Amino acid sequence: xxxxxxxxxxxxxxxxxxxxxxxxxxxxxxxxxxxxxxxxxxxxxxxxxxxxxxxxxxxxxxxxxxxxxxxxxxxxxxxxxxxxxxxxxxxxxxxxxxxxxxxxxxxxxxxxxxxxxxxxxxxxxxxxxxxxxxxxxxxxxxxxxxxxxxxxxxxxxxxxxxxxxxxxxxxxxxxxxxxxxxxxxxxxxxxxxxxxxxxxxxxxxxxxxxxxxxxxxxxxxxxxxxxxxxxxxxxxxxxxxxxxxxxxxxxxxxxxxxxxxxxxxxxxxxxxxxxxxxxxxxxxxxxxxxxxxxxxxxxxxxxxxxxxxxxxxxxxxxxxxxxxxxxxxxxxxxxxxxxxxxxxxxxxxxxxxxxxxxxxxxxxxxxxxxxxxxxxxxxxxxxxxxxxxxx
Length: 391
Fold this sequence. Notes:
This protein is an alpha/beta fold. The chain is built from 15 helices and 14 strands.
């Protein structure tokens, strides 16, 4: 069995994520078919009954997420998966789970929108995942792998975080990661089971327990919210994850996650061949966003390019972290299209050109005393580089 757990095989992303969840000890899965994550549900439909575990294809995404809420309230290790429009339908129950402290892992294999959109890959659910998804003052940890192997590793982490902090956790992968096939090493991890003093397991021999998110007394509800905010600060303090690549001597950095990060690596290799010193800063937790690490790094950079499969969402968090220390530019594609390495390289060259032009014009020609004066044109370095678009 141990040899089997470490074998190297070719697997589709959706199926690998599903098997990693099973090996992490998932007790119950609830879902509803939607492209591009349908194979995840299909894998669970075969494997979970084989192991005597719970699999339910619900009548809708609303049914699936509310079934998950009920199962997780018993202390079971529960997972739900869907794709962008289906995730939107789950927002109300996600807020209930965050408010009541119910741990569930939710996988979103993102597709292009808005509306029904298309089935091509996208990262346009970044706001939805990182800013709360449903109503109320809450956040959930959001994990973003850039390979099928990493997605498998992060499944165990997702269950750990959910149970450690009593919170829903999201794992987001664009449609390419869900549909692609890669050779992966079947190394699985099963998080240790905990005894929960909140789980609804029957009140025989003990006082009854209640899991709820409603408090009609404003002062009581505020105390609940303050406790949640304290929990989120603890998560941000201890669970921020990111990866750096080629940053040691970098003058520029590309910030990207998921498939966009893989495109960025190819662009960086080509840029370095042309003498451009650039590296990759890859958030692994989209929330908590690695803002302090990015802020520290930005002090030594000439500029940052954010690359996304969207109109520009993560770039807002990048700019908040950088706080004007260096210019932040953006390049993205929408509708299911993916930026090419050559496009990213072109955007990087454009950013470098703006930086060089701004530096050349930031000081006026020497005066009779041999000194220049700072430019007061108002169209400074940061203003010029922050314009979005694909150039």
